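Lab notes, practical 5.
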Amino acid sequence: MPVTAVVGTQYGDEGKGRIIDFLAGNSDLVIRFQGGNNAGHTVVNDKGRFHLHLIPSGVFNPKSTNLIGTGVVVNPEALLKEIEELELSGIDTSGILVSNRAHMLLPHHRVLDGIEEESRGSDSIGTTKQGIGPAYRDKTGRNGVRIGDLKHIDYLKSRLELQLQQVNQVLSNFGEPLVEIDSLLEQCVNWSAKLSDRIAEPIPLIKDAVESNQRILLEGQLGSMKDLDWGTYPYVTSSNPTAAFASVGSGVPYQHINDVVGVTKAYQTSVGEGPFPGELLDQIGDKLRDIGKEYGVTTGRPRRTGWYDSVAVQHSIWLNGMTSIAITKLDVLDTFEEIKICNSYQLPDGDIINYVPDTPVLEKVTPLFETWRGWKQPTTHVRRWEDLPQEARNYLERLQELAGIPIGYVSVGAEREAMFAV
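Output from the prediction step:
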């Protein structure tokens, strides 16, 4: 029974949406396993161009069920808006379900996120201020409310009263308006009316899919370098976008995950603060950003850019037990005379390392590069490995050598048809 997890190998924005859209055509069940609406997946196919924030990218396959999993924090208002936008584009949304165990992200979580980020001053993390951290904090503090609670309003009210005791204390300390339980509960009743039919018990659904040998695709958000435990802490997300959490966040037993695809840009980008070895703060970096249209899907913020960092990718490959990588945005490099790859870091004392150290050390490393000749010709028309320019194949073969696992897919454009298997 094939279960594939798709995760990012870098700092997020690797192009996971296009890989998932490509693979979802043969999937029966697609599950988003962590994160919230703080980041987006861009999908371009024959139905149009879409920016998905909560809904799994398999929604464009009318034969697949798309489950927002237990490990996700769900903003009901954002979810309803996303469903409405898809329906206005003629997309069938009947296959979109939400785990009853997924935690709810409420309006006050966004307020708290903004307050906390502003209070950090020059030490800001660079959050999207979508409330993700405060929602996960309530979850781990056992103070949260879950999507399934929308079906039990009396129970939900008691849970909200407990949560608001702490929330309103914080809001009061910062001079912000307090949250009124009646107003919040009224919103929840409205969400309940619109979402109840989509709220599902995940285990029976997943168990049936596994036992009937259906194809299951697990979708992560952001990248491994933003992992709460293994990323550039504290400049990370509030969940674990790694394959190990795919089992926890989806409900698929780990032993059934037999394929982990690591999505990797042909260069690298990052949004937010924190160490980013190899960052290009020059015209080359600007060129990468402009050609690649590197602006955040959720915030519109310009992404930081840099050459491919094989040390970070190898870090992610090991952590996730990846079986193959998918290279995206190769076409962005089509006009470059030279292309560089970071293959190691140099410490201030001169020692050279080939692993990602903890943040205080990572902030001080000097990336060491090797240089490869560019191909100086368009690749957007290419649909087979053999038709890539020789220099492009040389570059990709080096990335594969450094990764230690095969390249499974290459993307030379945003459209679905611009992806091919190797």
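Observations recorded by the TA: The chain has a mean pLDDT of 93. The chain has three domains: 3-98+213-260, 103-195, 265-421.
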